[in-house]
Amino acid sequence: MDELRFDYLFENWREVLVMAGDHLRLCLAAVGLALVVAVPLGMVAARFRGLTLPILSLLGVIYTVPSLAFLTFLIPTPLGIGRDNALVVLTAYAQLFLVRNIVAGLRGVDASTLEAAQGIGMTPWQVFQRVRWPLALPVVLAGIRTAFVSTISLATIAGWINAGGLGPLLFNGISRDQPPMILAGAVAIVALALLSDAVLRVAERWTAAARAQRAGAR
Amino acid sequence: MELLADAWRYVLDNPERVREAVVVHLQLSLAALALAIAIFVPIGVLVSRSGRVGAGLLGAVAAVRVVPSLAALFLLYSVMGTGFEPALVALTLLAGPPIVINTDAGLRNVDAAVLENARGLGMNPFQVFARVQAPIALPVAIAGVRSAAVEIVSSAALAAFIGVRGLGIFITSGLTLDRYEVLLVGAIPITLMALLAESGLGLAERVLTPPTA
């Protein structure tokens, strides 16, 4: 049994940091793109009860497709190998967490609160924008956090099709038989996942606190 | 469509290779799932019955969940070398979090009044657990096993990177050789296995869920 050696990480921490930045950019782009799809999809799924189960089931099936296979299926398409392919796959996987929580958040808003908002003369759009969406936001943010952490993990595998990020540390470490390089990659990915989770948790608490304060000021 | 036909032709031309890859893939997945159930269900039971220690263990399990499957596989490669055993260890560990979390949640969510009734009927603690609490918790625990099984089948494909000759090898060699049809020989059965594990265990979950009164 070889011992774990951290020398690669210590000697090349600048490079590892640059790769981590690249990894983060890929994940931010993917989750950003995923939100553009998930917000309208979640609103539709929350509004029409008959569509909720079919939409969530379909997203569940997509999530079940193994990531290596999913990346592979897109290789013969015009997306080919590289960042575009990875972006599509990561966006698709993130849908389940995002849509599920958007539906739960929007549905979770108390009906009497919405009625009260209508009662004071708000238009449907105002009810949505000023009351329903802000109240749903903490649950939506929790979904974004889960989606982001899972995207960080999945983006590692996308390194195999030249999508950049931290994955190449693992793959090059294997092909050159350099365990310290693998260790550097693994440590950096886990650190990035834990850090993102912590930052997004703070954001969740912060929005909840800000809302409580505004409510108190009224 | 033509690509599919080419993939099928590859399977017909190399039946031995494909058969061996399917066998290795299934062996690895089933062994990891069996090991994970044997190790992590008891841990889940333990967690549900011990207050503060349980909470600590659950925290540790949640941390394991953050480790990407690829990183887990490659880390075990760097300490154990290539082959079946490091992959088996990695997949078993990856299956831990969903099993522990769901076993604990299932057991903990059993109504206290139901357990009290069982005790009132004169059951001893073991009987209360085996005849009342465990059967009620079973569907939730199986949901955990389902997530674990899907994770294992997916990650077994990644094991090709550390030298396991399961279905993942068609994906890795297909890309190296630039042959799309070989890629599909790996990707299609892996996807079907994952969907089968998901739907099969989902069915077991529904069958075992007691009808709500």
TrEMBL record, chain A:
Instruction: Report which residue ranges the record marks as coiled coil.
Output: none
Q: Which residue ranges does UniProt annotate as crossing the membrane?
A: 23-46, 53-74, 86-103, 135-161, 181-203
**Membrane topology, from the record:** Multi-pass membrane protein
Could you tell me which residue ranges the ABC transmembrane type-1 domain spans?
20-200
Give a single Pfam family match: BPD_transp_1
* GO cellular component term of the entry, any: plasma membrane
Localization terms from the record: Cell membrane
- Keywords in UniProt for this one? Membrane, Transmembrane, Transmembrane helix, Transport
The family classification in the record reads: Belongs to the binding-protein-dependent transport system permease family.
Name of the featured protein:
ABC transmembrane type-1 domain-containing protein
Q: Which organism is it from?
A: uncultured Thermomicrobiales bacterium
